[in-house]
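Hi W., the S-adenosylmethionine complex you wanted:
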Amino acid sequence: MTMTEVSSGEAPLGFHTFARMVHDTIGVCLPEGKRGMIEARLSARVRALGLRDSQDYFRLLFAEGGLRGEMAHIEETVTTNKTDFFREVDHFNYLKDVILGGGLWRNRAGTFKAWSAASSSGAESYSMAMLFAEHAIAYPDFSWGVLGTDISGRVLEHARRAIYSNNLLEPVPEPLRNRYLHQGQNEWSGKSRIVPALRSRVKFQKLNLMNHDYDVDFNLDIIFLRNVLIYFDPDDQMAVLRKVGRHLAPGGHLFVGHSESMVVRMPNFRQVAPAIYRKDI
Ligand SMILES: C[S@@+](CC[C@H](N)C(=O)[O-])C[C@H]1O[C@@H](n2cnc3c(N)ncnc32)[C@H](O)[C@@H]1O
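Structure:
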């Protein structure tokens, strides 16, 4: 069947089938209340394929082979990518004052590694990176790296480009803005780019948290898994937390969103501050 030859007269495979498939593959829950939003987001794709409406689109998806080629579009459609620099600033203060300032980083022989496990367009990864780079000025033997991962290819592209509008960069403290951002000129005015010295230590790769396992280093020092569990159901929240937690070194720290902290119930993790957990040594 081609994209435009959608047969009619079949059993309707509508939003609920779509929502079940999204739940099983991406983890994101789409209750009936989100139907309008999702159908609105799909409308450009429906038009681009020459289809009449989302019903035709769902029928196309569930025809043999129909999902192939559409998953990337679906990942963009069902994810919410809102993020900010220094979002939930208590977490960055804890990282700066307790983990770096308090000397916990010295437990690590070798490179100090952090993972932003639902990085969106990179604000979280670069916020951490600025703190690590500052720390390295005072302690030149401090070596560090950050990995950002997300399911959305679009936000990962943005993260790698590392160009942000100045409005979004407002939460970045001024001394850090001066050191780690290049102001755009002419057609780039109103935007800034993260400096190369920071970009070279922050890598991004695509990763679906629903995968059985993750192609990410073990023995990490810091994991930020923030504002993504809220989209998953309780079983998937627990499963993702368990898988993510395996990648943390003993004594490493896990950060979840402030609204997600009640989800963390793992016996080998101790809460040390709101929505921050330390893995037992
Ligand atoms: C609201 S943003 C949170 C960004 C950042 N952690 C923060 O707190 O500002 C949620 C991100 O989770 C990503 N996401 C959703 N489901 C995912 C999955 N199954 N695997 C990986 N990332 C996922 C989305 O693409 C989105 O960029």
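The CA atoms of residues 209 and 268 lie 21 Å apart.

W.
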